[in-house]
Amino acid sequence: FLIFKAKAQSLKLAPFFLSVVLYFALVRKDPQGELWTTVLKCLPIVALMLYVVIKGFALNKHYRRSQLILLGLVFSCGGDALLNVNLFPFGMVSFGVAHLFYIGAFGWQPLKWILGLCIYVPVVICKYIYFSYLKIVVFVAKYLDEILIIGVPIYCVLISTMLWRALARAVDAKSFLTIFCAVGAALFVISDALIAVTMFLSVALPGARLQIMITYYIAQFAIALSTADDGPTPKCKKQK
């Protein structure tokens, strides 16, 4: 039964894997805002949206997590498109909204506030450094408009909260899907950190686009896959 279920999930995820291969095969260099690269970049996320719907979906309370993650994927797709056409501030806003939906999907129980504190302390320190040196580090400030000066710290809080809630859920449930989802959340943070390093600090990372997109696609894959067990509780489990 488990093997059959795994095969069924693989078939539903086939469009995602094919679109990822297509993206890396055809987009060989950093995109310059072309329509075709934007479409190819968004295709894997659209495929994950399709997966969330076809694996089992309904507009009721039993599929609340699937609904929220689907909305998160929609705004992530919008963020991908906006970033690809060089509208970074608006792309960041779109991803920020996506993280709000992911946070809602992961929930606030159990709270695990110590875990959250361990994540927020480094973020607060980075924000302090960010604002302290903003007037001094001219080469950073000149790349930031007013939206980014305010938006970057807010976005950092949102993605950190998303990571916190994913980790708290994994620690509590200890299932493959929740643990893999937490790994995905961590990879999302890493992917965004790589963008920040290359964009704001002008660090020339080897294969930067590959590093950013590989970690990003795995992150979104893990988050979408976490909806595989979403739905009504089986009667056998209720009886237990």
Question: What do you see in this structure?
Answer:
Mean pLDDT is 86; it is low at 135-139. The chain contains ten helices and no strands. It is an all-alpha fold and 240 residues long. Helix 1 (2-26) runs antiparallel to helix 2, helix 2 (35-54) runs antiparallel to helix 3 (64-84) and helix 7 (146-173) packs antiparallel against helix 8 (176-200). The longest helix has 28 residues, at 146-173. The chain has helices at 2-26, 35-54, 64-84, 88-106, 113-132, 138-141, 146-173, 176-200, 208-225, 235-239. GO terms for molecular function: alkenylglycerophosphocholine hydrolase activity. Its EC number is 3.3.2.2. Its main location: membrane.
What's a quick, concise take on this entry?
By secondary structure, the chain is mainly alpha-helical. The protein has helices at 2-26, 35-54, 64-84, 88-106, 113-132, 138-141, 146-173, 176-200, 208-225, 235-239.
Principal-axes shape call: globular
Structural class: mainly alpha
- Helix amount, in percent? over 70%
Assembly annotation: single chain
Give start-end ranges of low-pLDDT stretches.
135-139
Rounded to an integer, what's the Rg over CA atoms? 19 Å
Q: Describe the largest sheet.
A: none
Question: Given the structure, what is the number of helices?
Answer: 10
**C-alpha end-to-end distance:** 20 Å
Order of helices and strands: HHHHHHHHHH
Rounded mean pLDDT is 86
Number of strands: 0
Percent of sequence in beta strands = under 5%
